[in-house]
Amino acid sequence: MATSSKLNAKIPEGTIENKWTKYRSTVHLVNPSNKRSLEVIVVGSGLAGSSAAASLAEMGYKVKVFCYQDSPRRAHSIAAQGGINAAKNYQNDGDSVYRLFYDTIKGGDYRAREANVHRLAEVSSGIIDQCVAQGVPFAREYGGTLSNRSFGGTQVQRTFYAAGQTGQQLLLGAYSALQRQVGMGAVQLLARHEMMDVVTIDGKARGIIARDLVTGKLERHFGHAVLLCTGGYGNVFYLSTNAMGCNVTAAWKAHKKGAFFGNPCYTQIHPTCIPVSGDHQSKLTLMSESLRNDGRIWVPKKKDDARKAVDIPEEERDYYLERRYPAFGNLVPRDVASRAAKERCDAGYGVGASKMAVYLDFAANTERYGKIEATKLNLQNPSKAEIMRLGKEVVKEKYGNLFDMYKQITDENPYEMPMRIYPAVHYTMGGLWVDYNLMTTVEGLYALGEANFSDHGANRLGASALMQGLADGYFVIPYTIGDYLSEEIRTKAIPTDNEAFVKAEKEVQDRIDTLLNIKGTKTVDHFHKRLGKIMWEKCGMARNKEGLQWAISEIQKLKKEFWNEVRVPGTNNEFNTELEKAHRVADFIELGELMCIDALNRNESCGGHFREEFQTEEGEALRDDDNFAYVAAWEFKGESNFELHKEELKYENIKIAARSYK
Amino acid sequence: MSHGNMNLTLKVWKQKNKDSKGTFETYNVKGISPDMSFLEMFDVLNEQLITEGKEPIAFDHDCREGICGMCSMYINGRPHGPKGGVTTCQLHMRSFNNGDTIVVEPWRGAAFPVIKDLAVDRSSFDRIMAAGGFVSVNTGNAKDANNILIPKDDADTAFNAAACIGCGACVAACKNSSAMLFVSAKVSQLSLLPQGKIEKQDRVLNMVKQMDEEGFGNCTNTGACEAECPKSISLENIARMNREYLGSSFFQNK
To answer: How is chain B split into domains, by residue range?
Structure first.
C-alpha cells in the first residue's frame, strides 16, 4: 500500500527518540519583531485552544480567540474528570517515555502515527510542570509531592489528578494564562461567537466568518493562520457525554473547504456512564474511569435475576472482565470494557429496569480500605459495620464528588448499593487529518486537540485527552507554526473587503436565510434525535455492512427532510439558540453519512470500530493489518461524494501485534 | 415525548434584549417526569412552544453535568433552585411537586445585564480574571513539578477554593450583588500556593479594583453567597481576601 500523493505527513527524519528534538531545534523561526505583525485566529477555548492562544500570545503573535460559550472557561474540557497522563515515573514503577508511547500505540490498536505519539509522550512531562507552575492544585501526598493513580490500558501509575475535576483545574489553569494575555492586550477575546466558515485565498486559510451569537451579526476576521481547537463530534449521536453545544461545524466547514477528514468512524464509547433513564434525556453523564481502580464490574450469573444486587451471593456473580482479561481485569481499555458490557446485556444478563446496565461495585474495596484503616487505628476485632464505615470514609475522600453526582442523577446511594452503568458515546478519535505540524490539507489551517485525528488511533486510553490537548497547545504548535509563518512575514494583513471574505459571508447569510425560511413543522431537536438513533444503532458499538448501508440511505433521506421540514423560529438579528442548533445539526447530518461510509470501507475491527463480520472466535476485534494499516483521509468532492486517500501507517519502533489484555 | 405525570405552571421572565423591558409570562407544562432535570423540563416546554409557533425561552446551559457554570436560573427566589449544592442542570424535577407554580428569573445585578430572557452577560468575571487571576508564568518556564513541595492541607484548601465554577450564583444571591465570593476564591487558591505567593499583593489589589469598576456591590457579611453556592465555596475565602487586601494596601509602595 502506498500513501496518497495528496498526503504528506512531513514526519522528520531520524530515530524516533531524536525526531522531535532535532526538528524543533531546526524548524524555521519568526523573529520577535515580525511576530508582532502576524495574526493568528484560534477557534475554541478548551485545553488545546486556550493553551495555544496563551502560548502564541506570550511569544508575541497577535491572537484572536473565539468561543461559542459566554466565557472561554466553559469549554467542555472542563468536564474531564479522572486525570492526565505523564511519563514522570514518580512512582518508580517502570514508566518511561517509551512505555507511554508503547501503551498509547497499543491502546489505539495500532492505528496511530508513531512519530506523533512519541512526541506526545516526550512532552507529557513538561505539561505537568507547566500546570503546577500555574497553580493547578493537583492531588498531593502528605510529603508534599504529587499523587498518581492508575487508569485503563496501562500497568503503571502515571495519572495526575485533582479529585474528580482534573479537566476543570487544567482548563482553569490554561484559561488563567489566556486571560493574562487578554489583560495585556495580546489576545482579543470574542466569546459568544461561532465560526461559520473558513475563508481561503489562493489555497491558504486567511480568516473566518464568525457570527456574534448575541446580535446575530456576521463578522469577517483575517488571520495569517487559523487554528481549529473545536473538540470532537460525539454529539452526532445526540446522546453523549459531550456538552449540549459541542459540535462539528468548524471542522466540517474546514472539510468542505479542502481539509481532509481522518478516520471519522473511530468513536470512543466509554464504558462507565449512567444509563439512559427515559426519552426525555438530553445528555449522558460519565462516571470517571478512575472508579474502575476500586470498582468491580459484574452481572448476575443467572438471566433476569430479580434480586437486589446486595442479595446476590458472591458465587452467583459474574465478574466478566476479571474472568475474560485476568492480566488487566477491570482496567482493560475502554473499547474492550464497553464491548464486554454490551455482550453481557445483549445476552440477557443486564440489570436494572431497562436491563441495559451492569454493576460497578465498590463493596469489596470499601472493605479492604476499611481493614487497612482499622489496622492503622489499632482496632482489635472490628465489626464488619465498623470496617465498612471506615472504608466508606476512604472511598468518599477519593471519589466523593462522583458518588454525589451519581446520587443526584439516579436518586440511589452508591455507598450502599452498586452503581449501574452502561457505555455511552464519549470521545471521537477521528477528526481533521493533520501532518506532523498539525496542519490540515489546507495550508495555514491547523487542527489541535480532539479536533484532529492524530494521536489515539482507533481507541484513546483514559487520561490521554487532556495530555494531547495541552501538548498540542503548549508544546507543539508554538514550534511547528513557525515552519509556516516564517514564510508569511511578507504577507500584509488582507483587508476583509477582499472578495473571498465577501463571498464567504454571503454564503453563510444565504444559508441562514434558507434555514429561517423553511418554516416547516418539525423542530431541530426532532431531527437531531432521529440522526442520533440511526447512528447509535447502526454506527455505534457494533457495526455491520447491511446496517451501515441502510444508515447511509436513511441519513440521506433525513437530510432531505431536514431541509424541507425543519422549523427555526425567530430571526437572524437576535440571540437565537434554535438557529445555532439548526446550523450544527445540518452539519452533523452530513458528517453522520461520512462516518458510516468510513465504517463501511474499513473491513476490519480495530479499537472503537467493531465490525461484527470481523471478530475472533472469542468475540475480540479482528484487525486486518495487511489491508487496513492506514489512516482513511476523506476528501469532500460534493454532496454525498467523498474520495478516500490513504496514509500508510509504518511501525518501525513497535512490533505490530494482536492486542491482548488477557 | 415525555413519560411523566407532573403538571406545572411556570412564570418565566421574558426580555427581548438588554435594552428592552422584561415581563413575566405564564406557561403550563404537562407530562413531566420526576427524573428529568430542570433544564430538560425547559427542553420539553421549548419543543412545545416551537411546535405551537411560539417563541422558545432563551437560557444558558452547556455541560449539563454541573461543572461548566453556564446555567444560571433564579428559581423561586434562589439561584439554581431549592436544592443546596447543585447547579440548575443537576436539579431534578423530583425536587418539586405536581401542580407547583415555579417562578424563573435571570441572575439580577448591574454587572450582569440580561442578554435575552434568562441569559445574562457575565463577561465582567472574565475581565476580573484578566486583571490578576493568574500566576505570571510563560509556557516553558516551569521547573520539575516535584521541586515545589506543597503541604497536603494547603493543596486541599487551594483545591476547594479552585472548585468555583464561575456561575455567578453568589452575585445573584447577594442583596448587594457583590462578587466577593468569586474573587476571593481565586485570590485564596493562588495565595495559598507557593507559586502564587510572589505576586499576591498586586493580584488582590488589581482584581478588587476591576471588581469595583464592573459595578459589583460591597460585601456586608450576610453569607447568602456561601449558602447558595453550588460548589460550597467557603466564606473563609472572603476573610482571607480581606486580610490580604488590607495588608497589600498598607504595604503598597507603588
So the answer is: 6-115, 123-251
